[in-house]
C-alpha cells in the first residue's frame, strides 16, 4: 500500500479534489501557501496537514516514476472485444 493510501484515511475524496485545486491556485511561490491551501480545503485542516499531505503525494509520485509501484492490470470494459 502506498504511503498516501495508508495515511490518506484522514482525507476524503472531496477534500482531495479541493486540495488539488488549491495546489493549482497557490503555487510554490505563494506566501503562506500551506495556510491558504488548508483554508481552501477547510474541514479543520491545518497548514501542517496540507504540507504533510503534499509531501506524501510527492513521495508517491516519485515512487511511481522510479518504477517502485506496479501499474494495475485493468481489463478494458465496453470496448467491444471479448476476453481471449
From TrEMBL:
Residues 3-58 form the Myb-like domain. It comes from the Eukaryota. Keywords: Nucleus, Transcription, Transcription regulation. It is found in: Nucleus. The keyword Protease does not apply. One of its GO terms (molecular function) is DNA-binding transcription factor activity. GO terms for cellular component: nucleus. Its main location: nucleus. InterPro entries: Homeodomain-like_sf, RADIALIS-like, SANT/Myb. Signal peptide: none annotated. SUPFAM superfamilies: Homeodomain-like (SSF46689). This is Transcription factor RADIALIS. It comes from Apostasia shenzhenica. The gene is RAD.
Amino acid at each position: 500500500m502506498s504511503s498516501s493510501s495508508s495515511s490518506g484515511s484522514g482525507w476524503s475524496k472531496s477534500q482531495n479534489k479541493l486540495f488539488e485545486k488549491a495546489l493549482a491556485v497557490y503555487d510554490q511561490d505563494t506566501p503562506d501557501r500551506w495556510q491558504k491551501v488548508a483554508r481552501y480545503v477547510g474541514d479543520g485542516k491545518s497548514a501542517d496537514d496540507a504540507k504533510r499531505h503534499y509531501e506524501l503525494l510527492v513521495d508517491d509520485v516519485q515512487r511511481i516514476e522510479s518504477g517502485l509501484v506496479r501499474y494495475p492490470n485493468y481489463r478494458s470494459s465496453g470496448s467491444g472485444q471479448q476476453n481471449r
